[in-house]
Amino acid sequence: MADYCDQAPGHPFHGPYHDREYGFPVNDDAVLFERLILEINQAGLSWLTVLKKRAAFQAAFDGFDIDRVATYGGVERERLLNDSGIIRNRLKVEATIHNAGIIRTLQAEHGSFHAWLEHHHPLPLDDWIKLFKRTFRFTGPEIVNEFLMSTGYLPGAHRDDCPVQARILATEPPWAR
């Protein structure tokens, strides 16, 4: 999002995310899982709302420990739905738990969630969207696009004249290979 490069720098929440995370390649499965879940939870809300609740999400979902989240049962679901620190949406909570289980399967089949993404890269956005819809829950076009941009699989996180863009290019993100 082009205007993000103008608005984010210096902002207490957007600034650090814009400058240190957004668009940089990610190969850690827990971080990839976190980004996917944050993007899912952003649906219908502002990104600022999600960033402000990020620490609460990390606590509520055991640091985005994929194995732990995948085994959540009824008690954990109710705990999450009663946690005012996060976005208490049943569909999003269910998608998070379900998607953790899917990622465990992808890890078993490909070695890691990151390896699964690498296996399918490069794909055009429409094909990524179809793949995510077949694989995960609650992954519409905007969620998939933002997830892939935020983790370095698609370009567009920063304008070419944004100073962060040069730092991202130096890391050789998947989209620039």
UniProtKB/TrEMBL annotation:
Protein name: DNA-3-methyladenine glycosylase I
A UniProt-annotated Pfam family: Adenine_glyco
InterPro entries xref list: Adenine_glyco, DNA-3mA_glycosylase, DNA_glycosylase
Organism per entry: Litchfieldella rifensis
